[in-house]
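Researcher: I'd like a candidate sequence for this fold, 300 residues long. If you have to choose between options at a position, lean toward the conservative one.
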Protein backbone atom coordinates (compact mmCIF):
# COMPACT_ATOMS: atom_id res chain seq x y z
CA UNK A 1 0.00 0.00 0.00
CA UNK A 2 1.25 3.46 -0.88
CA UNK A 3 1.70 6.03 1.88
CA UNK A 4 -0.12 8.55 -0.33
CA UNK A 5 -3.28 6.41 -0.11
CA UNK A 6 -3.52 7.19 3.63
CA UNK A 7 -3.49 10.96 3.11
CA UNK A 8 -6.56 13.21 2.75
CA UNK A 9 -6.59 16.73 1.31
CA UNK A 10 -8.84 18.06 4.11
CA UNK A 11 -6.24 16.93 6.67
CA UNK A 12 -3.40 18.85 5.07
CA UNK A 13 -2.86 22.49 5.95
CA UNK A 14 -0.64 24.75 3.90
CA UNK A 15 0.74 27.90 5.53
CA UNK A 16 0.84 26.95 9.20
CA UNK A 17 0.78 30.07 11.37
CA UNK A 18 2.38 28.29 14.33
CA UNK A 19 5.66 29.49 15.79
CA UNK A 20 6.10 26.39 18.00
CA UNK A 21 5.52 22.69 17.45
CA UNK A 22 2.83 22.67 20.14
CA UNK A 23 0.94 25.42 18.32
CA UNK A 24 1.28 23.44 15.09
CA UNK A 25 -0.25 20.37 16.75
CA UNK A 26 -3.21 22.44 17.93
CA UNK A 27 -3.70 23.90 14.43
CA UNK A 28 -3.78 20.39 13.00
CA UNK A 29 -6.20 19.14 15.65
CA UNK A 30 -8.44 22.05 14.70
CA UNK A 31 -8.71 20.48 11.24
CA UNK A 32 -10.32 17.43 12.82
CA UNK A 33 -12.66 19.62 14.87
CA UNK A 34 -13.71 21.56 11.77
CA UNK A 35 -14.32 18.25 10.00
CA UNK A 36 -16.69 17.21 12.77
CA UNK A 37 -14.63 14.19 13.89
CA UNK A 38 -15.67 12.87 17.30
CA UNK A 39 -12.53 12.73 19.46
CA UNK A 40 -11.33 13.92 22.86
CA UNK A 41 -9.37 17.05 21.98
CA UNK A 42 -7.79 17.73 25.39
CA UNK A 43 -6.88 14.08 25.97
CA UNK A 44 -5.23 13.83 22.56
CA UNK A 45 -3.26 17.04 23.10
CA UNK A 46 -2.10 15.78 26.50
CA UNK A 47 -0.96 12.46 25.00
CA UNK A 48 1.00 14.22 22.24
CA UNK A 49 2.64 16.53 24.78
CA UNK A 50 3.55 13.59 27.06
CA UNK A 51 5.15 11.77 24.12
CA UNK A 52 7.09 14.93 23.27
CA UNK A 53 8.44 15.13 26.82
CA UNK A 54 9.73 11.56 26.59
CA UNK A 55 11.60 12.32 23.37
CA UNK A 56 11.66 15.22 20.94
CA UNK A 57 9.88 14.07 17.78
CA UNK A 58 11.68 16.48 15.45
CA UNK A 59 13.30 14.20 12.90
CA UNK A 60 15.65 16.55 11.11
CA UNK A 61 15.62 17.36 7.38
CA UNK A 62 12.98 20.01 8.21
CA UNK A 63 10.41 17.42 9.38
CA UNK A 64 8.77 16.70 12.74
CA UNK A 65 6.55 13.73 13.58
CA UNK A 66 4.58 14.42 16.77
CA UNK A 67 2.47 11.35 17.50
CA UNK A 68 0.54 9.45 20.12
CA UNK A 69 -1.18 6.12 20.63
CA UNK A 70 -4.27 6.99 22.60
CA UNK A 71 -7.81 5.71 23.01
CA UNK A 72 -8.98 9.33 22.78
CA UNK A 73 -9.27 8.60 19.03
CA UNK A 74 -11.13 5.74 17.41
CA UNK A 75 -9.09 5.35 14.21
CA UNK A 76 -5.81 6.26 12.54
CA UNK A 77 -5.45 9.95 11.66
CA UNK A 78 -2.63 11.53 9.66
CA UNK A 79 -2.56 15.33 9.62
CA UNK A 80 0.09 17.34 7.80
CA UNK A 81 0.98 20.99 8.22
CA UNK A 82 3.45 22.93 6.09
CA UNK A 83 5.11 26.05 7.47
CA UNK A 84 6.52 28.51 4.96
CA UNK A 85 8.53 30.47 7.55
CA UNK A 86 9.69 27.40 9.48
CA UNK A 87 9.35 26.61 13.17
CA UNK A 88 12.56 27.27 15.06
CA UNK A 89 12.77 25.09 18.18
CA UNK A 90 16.20 26.06 19.47
CA UNK A 91 19.01 28.32 18.28
CA UNK A 92 20.96 25.31 17.05
CA UNK A 93 18.17 23.30 15.45
CA UNK A 94 17.11 23.25 11.81
CA UNK A 95 13.72 24.96 11.28
CA UNK A 96 10.79 22.56 10.94
CA UNK A 97 8.76 23.14 7.78
CA UNK A 98 6.68 19.94 7.71
CA UNK A 99 4.75 18.75 10.76
CA UNK A 100 3.17 15.30 10.38
CA UNK A 101 0.82 14.54 13.28
CA UNK A 102 -0.02 10.85 13.64
CA UNK A 103 -2.77 9.68 16.01
CA UNK A 104 -3.90 6.10 16.50
CA UNK A 105 -5.78 4.02 19.07
CA UNK A 106 -3.64 2.11 21.56
CA UNK A 107 -4.39 -1.29 20.01
CA UNK A 108 -3.00 -0.32 16.60
CA UNK A 109 0.77 -0.78 16.55
CA UNK A 110 1.82 -2.20 13.19
CA UNK A 111 0.26 0.35 10.83
CA UNK A 112 1.16 3.15 13.24
CA UNK A 113 4.85 2.29 13.23
CA UNK A 114 4.97 1.58 9.51
CA UNK A 115 3.33 4.92 8.76
CA UNK A 116 5.89 6.72 10.91
CA UNK A 117 8.63 4.84 9.09
CA UNK A 118 7.13 5.77 5.73
CA UNK A 119 7.06 9.44 6.71
CA UNK A 120 10.70 9.18 7.79
CA UNK A 121 11.63 7.66 4.41
CA UNK A 122 9.86 10.55 2.72
CA UNK A 123 11.89 13.03 4.83
CA UNK A 124 15.12 11.35 3.74
CA UNK A 125 14.23 11.66 0.03
CA UNK A 126 16.75 14.00 -1.53
CA UNK A 127 15.32 17.42 -2.41
CA UNK A 128 11.84 16.61 -1.06
CA UNK A 129 11.70 19.54 1.39
CA UNK A 130 12.39 22.15 -1.29
CA UNK A 131 9.64 20.66 -3.44
CA UNK A 132 7.17 20.59 -0.56
CA UNK A 133 7.79 24.25 0.27
CA UNK A 134 6.82 25.19 -3.30
CA UNK A 135 3.46 23.42 -3.47
CA UNK A 136 0.26 25.47 -3.67
CA UNK A 137 -2.46 22.89 -3.09
CA UNK A 138 -3.00 20.02 -0.64
CA UNK A 139 -3.45 17.72 -3.62
CA UNK A 140 0.06 18.68 -4.75
CA UNK A 141 1.46 17.27 -1.49
CA UNK A 142 -0.34 13.96 -1.96
CA UNK A 143 0.93 13.73 -5.54
CA UNK A 144 4.46 14.50 -4.33
CA UNK A 145 4.26 11.66 -1.81
CA UNK A 146 2.83 9.35 -4.46
CA UNK A 147 5.61 10.22 -6.93
CA UNK A 148 8.20 9.54 -4.22
CA UNK A 149 6.99 5.93 -4.22
CA UNK A 150 6.95 5.52 -0.45
CA UNK A 151 5.00 2.38 0.44
CA UNK A 152 3.75 0.78 3.64
CA UNK A 153 4.96 -2.81 3.93
CA UNK A 154 2.54 -5.61 4.73
CA UNK A 155 4.79 -6.97 7.48
CA UNK A 156 6.80 -5.08 10.05
CA UNK A 157 10.47 -5.26 9.03
CA UNK A 158 13.81 -4.24 10.46
CA UNK A 159 13.91 -1.05 8.36
CA UNK A 160 10.88 0.27 10.29
CA UNK A 161 12.73 0.14 13.62
CA UNK A 162 16.45 0.26 12.89
CA UNK A 163 18.70 3.25 13.46
CA UNK A 164 20.23 4.53 10.25
CA UNK A 165 23.03 6.48 11.91
CA UNK A 166 25.61 4.09 13.31
CA UNK A 167 28.62 5.25 15.31
CA UNK A 168 31.72 3.51 13.94
CA UNK A 169 35.46 3.26 14.39
CA UNK A 170 38.16 1.66 12.25
CA UNK A 171 40.86 -0.84 13.28
CA UNK A 172 43.42 2.00 13.11
CA UNK A 173 41.58 4.15 15.66
CA UNK A 174 42.84 4.19 19.23
CA UNK A 175 41.34 3.24 22.55
CA UNK A 176 40.99 6.96 23.26
CA UNK A 177 38.99 7.43 20.06
CA UNK A 178 36.64 4.66 21.15
CA UNK A 179 36.15 6.07 24.65
CA UNK A 180 35.50 9.55 23.27
CA UNK A 181 32.93 8.26 20.78
CA UNK A 182 31.15 6.20 23.43
CA UNK A 183 30.94 9.26 25.68
CA UNK A 184 29.87 11.61 22.87
CA UNK A 185 27.05 9.39 21.61
CA UNK A 186 26.15 7.82 24.98
CA UNK A 187 26.78 4.31 23.64
CA UNK A 188 28.15 1.15 25.18
CA UNK A 189 29.37 -0.37 21.89
CA UNK A 190 30.64 0.73 18.47
CA UNK A 191 30.75 -0.99 15.10
CA UNK A 192 34.21 -1.55 13.65
CA UNK A 193 34.34 -1.00 9.89
CA UNK A 194 36.96 -0.75 7.18
CA UNK A 195 37.32 2.28 4.91
CA UNK A 196 34.63 0.88 2.58
CA UNK A 197 32.12 0.67 5.46
CA UNK A 198 32.29 -3.13 5.55
CA UNK A 199 31.50 -4.44 9.03
CA UNK A 200 34.50 -6.14 10.64
CA UNK A 201 33.46 -6.45 14.26
CA UNK A 202 32.31 -4.72 17.41
CA UNK A 203 34.01 -3.15 20.41
CA UNK A 204 32.16 -2.40 23.64
CA UNK A 205 32.77 -0.98 27.09
CA UNK A 206 33.52 -4.45 28.45
CA UNK A 207 36.38 -4.80 25.96
CA UNK A 208 37.90 -1.54 27.22
CA UNK A 209 37.75 -2.66 30.85
CA UNK A 210 39.24 -6.05 29.91
CA UNK A 211 42.16 -4.19 28.32
CA UNK A 212 42.89 -2.70 31.75
CA UNK A 213 42.27 -5.97 33.61
CA UNK A 214 43.70 -8.80 31.52
CA UNK A 215 43.98 -10.94 34.69
CA UNK A 216 40.43 -10.26 35.86
CA UNK A 217 39.74 -13.98 36.36
CA UNK A 218 42.56 -14.17 38.89
CA UNK A 219 41.11 -11.17 40.70
CA UNK A 220 37.71 -12.83 40.93
CA UNK A 221 39.04 -16.17 42.17
CA UNK A 222 41.49 -14.62 44.64
CA UNK A 223 40.56 -11.32 46.24
CA UNK A 224 44.05 -11.15 47.78
CA UNK A 225 45.63 -11.23 44.32
CA UNK A 226 48.49 -8.73 44.30
CA UNK A 227 48.53 -5.92 41.73
CA UNK A 228 51.86 -4.18 41.32
CA UNK A 229 50.47 -1.14 39.47
CA UNK A 230 47.11 0.58 39.18
CA UNK A 231 45.67 -1.02 35.98
CA UNK A 232 43.48 1.89 34.89
CA UNK A 233 46.33 4.34 35.32
CA UNK A 234 48.52 2.15 33.13
CA UNK A 235 45.76 1.92 30.54
CA UNK A 236 45.46 5.70 30.39
CA UNK A 237 49.17 5.94 29.64
CA UNK A 238 48.63 3.70 26.61
CA UNK A 239 45.28 5.05 25.36
CA UNK A 240 46.86 6.74 22.31
CA UNK A 241 48.89 3.65 21.42
CA UNK A 242 46.41 0.78 21.85
CA UNK A 243 44.58 0.22 18.56
CA UNK A 244 41.04 -0.98 17.99
CA UNK A 245 42.55 -3.84 15.98
CA UNK A 246 43.96 -5.20 19.26
CA UNK A 247 40.62 -5.21 21.07
CA UNK A 248 37.63 -5.65 18.77
CA UNK A 249 35.67 -8.90 18.52
CA UNK A 250 34.31 -10.63 15.44
CA UNK A 251 31.37 -12.32 17.18
CA UNK A 252 28.40 -10.17 16.20
CA UNK A 253 24.91 -10.70 14.82
CA UNK A 254 23.67 -9.29 11.52
CA UNK A 255 20.40 -9.02 9.65
CA UNK A 256 19.00 -7.25 6.59
CA UNK A 257 16.56 -4.32 6.37
CA UNK A 258 13.82 -6.53 4.91
CA UNK A 259 13.93 -9.22 7.60
CA UNK A 260 10.73 -9.51 9.63
CA UNK A 261 11.11 -7.83 13.00
CA UNK A 262 9.61 -10.84 14.83
CA UNK A 263 12.39 -13.08 13.50
CA UNK A 264 15.14 -10.76 14.69
CA UNK A 265 13.45 -10.16 18.04
CA UNK A 266 13.22 -13.92 18.64
CA UNK A 267 16.89 -14.34 17.75
CA UNK A 268 17.88 -11.50 20.11
CA UNK A 269 16.02 -13.17 22.98
CA UNK A 270 17.45 -16.61 22.19
CA UNK A 271 21.03 -15.36 21.97
CA UNK A 272 20.57 -12.70 24.67
CA UNK A 273 22.05 -9.97 22.48
CA UNK A 274 21.31 -6.26 22.77
CA UNK A 275 22.12 -5.21 19.22
CA UNK A 276 22.04 -6.58 15.69
CA UNK A 277 23.86 -4.83 12.86
CA UNK A 278 21.96 -4.30 9.61
CA UNK A 279 23.84 -5.21 6.43
CA UNK A 280 23.01 -4.51 2.80
CA UNK A 281 25.33 -5.44 -0.08
CA UNK A 282 28.05 -6.22 2.51
CA UNK A 283 27.89 -2.65 3.83
CA UNK A 284 26.76 -1.51 7.26
CA UNK A 285 23.52 0.47 6.86
CA UNK A 286 22.06 0.48 10.37
CA UNK A 287 21.72 -1.11 13.77
CA UNK A 288 18.74 -2.59 15.58
CA UNK A 289 18.81 -2.23 19.36
CA UNK A 290 16.72 -4.35 21.69
CA UNK A 291 15.63 -1.26 23.58
CA UNK A 292 14.33 0.28 20.34
CA UNK A 293 11.96 -2.64 19.87
CA UNK A 294 10.58 -1.83 23.31
CA UNK A 295 10.58 1.94 22.80
CA UNK A 296 9.11 2.08 19.32
CA UNK A 297 6.75 -0.90 19.20
CA UNK A 298 5.62 -1.48 22.78
CA UNK A 299 5.86 2.04 24.19
CA UNK A 300 5.20 3.81 20.88
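Model: Candidate sequence:
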Amino acid sequence: MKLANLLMERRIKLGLRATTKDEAVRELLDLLKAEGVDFQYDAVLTSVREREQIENTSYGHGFAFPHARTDAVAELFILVGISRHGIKETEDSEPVHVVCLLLTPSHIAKLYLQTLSGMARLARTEGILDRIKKIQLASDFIKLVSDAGVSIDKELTVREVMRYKVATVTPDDTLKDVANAMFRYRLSALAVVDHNNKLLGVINDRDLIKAALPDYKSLISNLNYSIDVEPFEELLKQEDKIKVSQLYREDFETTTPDTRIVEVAAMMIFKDTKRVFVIEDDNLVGVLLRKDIVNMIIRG
